[in-house]
Amino acid sequence: MKRTIIALIGLLCTFSQASLLSSDIEIWTGTGANQSILVIDWNSGPTPQSLAWGFRWEGSATAEEALRTVVTADPRLDWQVGTASDFGLPLYGLSYDLNNNGIIGSGNDESMIPTDPGDLHANGWLTAGFWALYLGGRSDLPNWQSATTGISGYNLVAGDWIGLSFGPAPTWDGGAPDEPIPATVPEPISLTLLLTGTGGLLTRRSNPTRIN
Questions:
Q1: I need a surface site. Which of 30, 46, 159, 203 has the fewest CB within 10 A?
Q2: Which CA distances in Å does 137 have to 90, 141, 162, 175?
Q3: Bridge-partner residues for 174, per DSSP?
Q4: Which pLDDT does position 172 carry in this prediction?
Q5: Is the pLDDT of residue 90 over 80?
Q6: Lowest-pLDDT range, 14-18, 75-79, 83-87, 193-197?
């Protein structure tokens, strides 16, 4: 009986944390009545973390559009992509300015290391690893499943959780994203981003240093 009570308390706490996460997202981008939560899990770095952003849209939108809008709005997040083809946009790498020093990024080559070793970074395609798309459903508690398409091929549904998880070689499997925490708004642009992010901030007010 005691174990059952403890298990139920743990389950309730899990649901509570997930609900708080969805309402505690600090960075919302885009505009519209529909919303999704984007989760990125690097599975590597000085302190491996899984971070979450919010994306709003009207009409239709893809996972690629959600990621592109978030990258554009958050100066701490950068991506490395290839040339779009019939198969969509190849996602080579994602970097996050974890120490908030304004230095972020890397090149598209799989052998490239992050510009700042204090950041979150993972880059791969054919040899070093691969960024996989996961779908978490539309409840407060995501139930992650591996997607059968890339970021360009998945059309968002209102309330979606979408996740990106890096699987390093040789296993190529990073697994579903871990429970995320909200990505934070860096100083000194916190107030500006919070006020404009909900209105669809598509340009950066402060650009980090990028070395490619």
A1: 203
A2: 24, 8, 8, 16
A3: none
A4: 83
A5: yes
A6: 14-18
Three-state helix/strand/coil letters over the chain: CHHHHHHHHHHHHHHHHHHHHHHHCCCEEECCCEEEEEEEECCCCCCCCEEEEEEEECCCCEHHHHHHHHHHHCCCEEEEECCCECCECCEEEEEECCCCCCEECCCCCCCCCCCCCCCEEEECCCCCEEEEEEEEECCCCCCCEECCCCCCCCECCCCCEEEEEEEECCCCCCCCCCCCEECCCCCCCHHHHHHHHCCCCCCCCCCCEECC
Q: Is the peptide bond prior to 208 cis by the omega test (within 30 degrees of 0)?
A: no
CB 92 within 8 A of CB 126: no
The more confident residue out of 12 and 38 is 38
| Residue 25, pLDDT above cutoff 60 | yes
pTM equals 0.78
Q: Please give the mean pLDDT across all residues of the chain.
A: 80
**How buried is residue 82: exposed, middle or buried, by Cβ count under 10 Å (0-12/13-18/19+)?**
exposed
Which residues contact residue 35 at a Cβ distance below 8 angstroms, ignoring those fewer than 6 apart? 28, 54, 55, 56, 57, 158, 159
